[in-house]
Amino acid sequence: MPEPISDRIAALLDDLGGIEAETDPVLVRLKSRDFYWYSPVLKPQLDGKRGEVVVRPKDEAEVLAILAACVRHRIPVVPRGGGTGNYGQAVPLEGGVILDMTAMSRILSFADGIAEVEAGATLMQVDAWARQQGWELRLWPSTKRTATVGGFVGGGGAGIGGIAHGTLREPGNLAGVTIATMEESPRMIDLAWGKAAPVNHCFGTTGVITRVRLPLAPAMAWRDLAISFPDFAAAAAFGLALGMADGIPKKMCAVIDWPLPSFFKGLAELLPEGRPIVLAMVGPCGMGAVADLVATHGGEIEAEQDFATAEAANELTPFYEYTWNHTTLHVLKRDKGITYLQCLFPPGRTLEAVARLRDRFAGEMWMHTEVARFGGQVTMSALPVIRWTTRERLWEIIAACEADGVAVANPHVYTLEEGARWKLVGADRLAFKREVDPYGLLNPGKMTSFSPVGGKDAA
Ligand SMILES: Cc1cc2nc3c(=O)[nH]c(=O)nc-3n(C[C@H](O)[C@H](O)[C@H](O)COP(=O)(O)OP(=O)(O)OC[C@H]3O[C@@H](n4cnc5c(N)ncnc54)[C@H](O)[C@@H]3O)c2cc1C
Q1: The domain defined by 223-408 carries CATH number 3.90.79.10
Q2: Domain ranges of the chain
Q3: Considering the domain 107-219 in this protein, what is its CATH number?
Q4: pTM exceeding the 0.90 threshold for the entire prediction
Q5: Digit-coded pLDDT (tens) for 32-86
Q6: Which of 36, 77, 80, 104 is the pocket-test mutation for ligand 1 (most atoms within 8 Å of CB)?
Q7: What angle do CA 406, 153, 319 make, to 5 degrees?
């Protein structure tokens, strides 16, 4: 028996006319999920949460019509791209509409090194198009194949390219967005450069992004390298040295402790047992200098491939698909008893802080760091794999990290406030939210300090 549609959804569907909408419970359930199940803490909290209808606009006029109808009926809306978020960002907490943006995927324009694309384009699609013009994405998540540009701005922001360009929140990496507001009469607003900040990593609570403007980088024929080292300290020292080698063009550098590489299907077979590795993407002109650096740190290049060939070939895996949160995924596929954290080490004492954390939780935590720039300084962020026991133990580990000056973006919470380093949403974002979504209908429950029209925001 099909599940009955609520009166409010029936009324909404009447208002939507010919706009694509789907209430099939199997599809709705599927589109109500993201990768929250990565977290053993979030899984029981979010299992079973779902929207009521998937609506798929094909252009901005349809987005405005959908939002106007939803405001009229006071129905919540959760924007959705590829659904690859890790913290339940795209999971509807209060039912309503799942706004599937993937039909809006056109490349709109390119000038002065800046591409304007529709929010539902995948990062893979945009990068492939950019390469045909001699350019490439500065940054992409390891989920490049399925993640959308709108979802990267709304829910992600770090990844491959971070070693050269920092995060999406670094000034200059996001040229602007166009959003639709959630008011009685929804508007399109254009937010350029810094004005886009209240939308950046706000889980779709501050407007539906319809267009994104991304500054690109000149294209490079990246070489994928897998390099093994006698111990983790040597691998980490090499990784940081590569990050700081300004003369070597690079896109990625992940330092991954053994036994994590043994879980990498398609690569593990090429690696020697027991040796930590670095996975790097290096420009062809930097290969000689990298070979010197590898030798200085006692490493061995175990595997090398052309990144673009590997990305295009079904039987190959580009090395970035073993890095960032893909590292955790490869382990999770074979060991459901693990989980992870997201840490940021202090620049200046990066290696010391990484080593201390690794030693302190030996046997319970396996280190995986990514060399990245933050505020112009080269350091490491980490997604260490952790043996899951209890929430209390995980929170103890987080407290230990923070006590040692290692910042943690907790991936086991789904609100913006709990996930933020200062446990709050800035006043600028709250004020912006009040302007663009006065009734609090966009992804409700994710920005908890906001209260809708008539209410008082939490301090
Ligand atoms: C294996 C794995 C590896 C990952 N690696 C990385 C990584 O390297 N770097 C990284 O940053 N993240 C990473 N992630 C997280 C995630 O893949 C990225 O953040 C990705 O960019 C999300 O894009 P998406 O289209 O799937 O977004 P979704 O999951 O669909 O949405 C993410 C959030 O953005 C909002 N949103 C989506 N589209 C819009 C829109 N048009 N307007 C307004 N809000 C919108 C949603 O409501 C949601 O809150 C990883 C996740 C997995 C599972």
Answers
A1: no
A2: 107-219, 223-408
A3: 3.30.465.10
A4: yes
A5: 999 999 999 999 999 999 999 999 999 999 999 999 999 999 999 999 999 999 9
A6: 80
A7: 70
